[in-house]
């Protein structure tokens, strides 16, 4: 923090006396090599009236304390925090649980010493670090409460002045898509035996297959809504060439889920043929 001294040296400066800012960065002007100076304002208050080279702006304060406060307010920087987790967050199939998560928060002191670090699961306090590193560092915590549905972790750091939140780390769970080719009239169980894809609800999904006297199948959770379009590898609209039916497929979590199954109406033979299914 800059130190202050009146010049000429006297117990109480008079209006017009020179007031030096004894901050190495402010002692000389790089272009002229001259001492930077400002003049004292009101004598009684020992304030600052003039341009501050440190702050790069004009100040008019009533007291020396006010000048110091202005400097501190403009130079304070809150701490930072970044959160990671292991295993790495990924989209997972519902029924494929996560047993434990190791959390690591990297903190960094910027102005004031770090005084608190805490971890949260879905906004609920998971735990606080007993003695966080004052200068910053890596703080860890393990959540042993397994889960099989969407969970989001965050962490916070405080220096007693400001509390800063980290990035969010989320684990998401979905029911899968199923697609591929097979004989006409496959049951829901047989459709669930085709290619399985763990993907989030998406506007469209392109599927490339090579049927040999078979039909195309495409199935996904009915909660996503009906398809609006199916275009083939040549860009032609073929939605009318499919039959949509509702079915129940048992998920990995053991629950019965409503699905839409789209089945192509005519067996076909193709090589690396792409259909694009759009919601």
Question: If you had to describe this structure to a student in words, what would you say it looks like?
Answer:
With 279 residues, the protein is mostly beta strands. It folds into 3 domains: 3-75, no CATH class; 80-173, Immunoglobulin-like (Sandwich), CATH 2.60.40.10; 175-278. It is built from 2 helices and 22 strands. Strands 7, 9, 10, 12, 13 and 14 form a 6-stranded mixed β-sheet that branches. Strands 1-2-3-4-5 form a 5-stranded antiparallel β-sheet, with helices on one face. It has a 5-stranded antiparallel β-sheet with strand order 16-15-18-21-20. 19% of the residues are buried.
Instruction: Give the SSE order as H and E letters.
Output: EEEEEHEEEEEEEEEEHEEEEEEE
- Return the structural class: mainly beta
Poorly predicted runs are 1-11, 16-44
Radius of gyration computed on alpha carbons: 33 Å
The number of E-state strands comes to 22
Number of domains: 3
Mean pLDDT: 84
Largest sheet: 6 strands, mixed
Helix content: under 10%
- How far do the termini sit from each other? 61 Å
Report the total helices: 2
Overall spatial form = elongated
Quote the beta fraction: 35-45%
